[in-house]
Write a structure and sequence with these properties.
By secondary structure, the protein is an all-alpha fold. It contains 13 helices and two strands. The protein is globular and about 75 Å long.
């Protein structure tokens, strides 16, 4: 009986497991293999080179610039998106009029395709004719070159990302807020607790499991940006806005160096695995209340 149940379970899992192996596990193993080999072209036989690709990566100034950009991009987008998501969730969860319209307004950027978002913000950032420059001209200020200035290109991407992601994360916080016990808030009000005290002592601690989930997704998203970069800056100017995944894409499809791209891919996968391990196996034990 148990064997029949196990066979049936494996049969039901087989379609999803096949896709997982074909599009996740096998490409990962192939990337690891290609990261320790090299050939003059994809048609030529590959040769085992050990860690030479990784040594070349450590000597690559563009790699370190991309890593620095990705660090600042994560610092700029993750905390800001989470903070705004909490604020918006508290706002639309309150007893006020037109909360349905507010929820729709906050969530609308999330449902837009990435290419559409990039093209909208490309218009916003366009010199002279863009929305931001037009607003600045109303107060007699010449707008900068938002995407062409090395000091502004990355902050411009960060601002756009926060606009798109905060509404998505708001949905998770809103669902979590609606599951919190009303009795806790009633008891706090009877004790005369202020709104800030209630948030700091009750709401935010109880939202920590949701925050961990959102934090994992936000960090993963910080390393997955390609579409917006392809439309807005292509990593420029002078790699000022280049990020790791776009650099991998550029290395593989523009420079046609699939071996070095595989090396970069392995590094990114290891980084994401470490981040996930720390968040799930260390933070998770500290924030789930029993």
């Amino acid at each position: 009986m148990n064997k029949k149940v196990n066979l049936k379970a494996w049969a039901l899992m087989l379609p999803a497991l096949s896709l997982l192996i074909a599009f996740t596990h096998w490409p990962t193993l192939k990337s690891v293999f290609r990261s320790v080999t090299w050939a003059k072209s994809d048609m030529a036989p590959s040769q085992f080179v050990g860690l030479e690709n990784y040594a070349m990566m450590l000597d690559d100034p563009v790699f370190w610039k991309v890593m620095e950009n990705n660090l600042w991009y994560a610092i700029g987008t993750v905390p800001t998106s989470i903070a705004l998501a909490i604020i918006m969730a508290l706002w639309v969860n309150s007893k006020m009029r037109f909360t349905g319209l507010l929820r729709l307004a906050f969530f609308t950027p999330t449902i837009l395709p990435m290419i559409t978002v990039a093209n909208i913000w490309l218009f916003f950032y366009s010199p002279n004719i863009g929305l931001f420059d037009q607003l600045l001209q109303m107060v007699n200020i010449d707008g900068p070159n938002w995407l062409g200035d090395p000091d502004l290109a990355l902050p411009s991407l960060i601002f756009m990302t926060v606009w798109k992601e905060a509404g998505f994360f708001m949905i998770f916080y809103l669902a979590a807020l609606q599951l919190l016990s009303v009795e806790l808030y009633e008891a706090a009000k009877v004790e005369g607790a202020s709104a800030w005290c209630i948030f700091r002592k009750i709401t935010f601690p109880l939202l920590m499991p949701t925050t961990l989930f959102v934090l994992i997704n936000a960090l993963l998203n910080a390393f997955k940006l390609v579409d917006h970069l392809f439309i807005l800056t292509k990593g420029g100017p002078n790699n000022a806005s280049n990020l790791l995944l776009y650099y991998i894409y550029e290395t593989a499809f523009s420079f046609l160096d699939s071996y070095y791209a595989a090396t970069l891919t392995v590094v990114m996968l290891v980084m994401l695995a470490i981040i996930a391990f720390v968040q799930i196996f260390i933070f998770d034990r500290k924030i789930h209340y029993r």
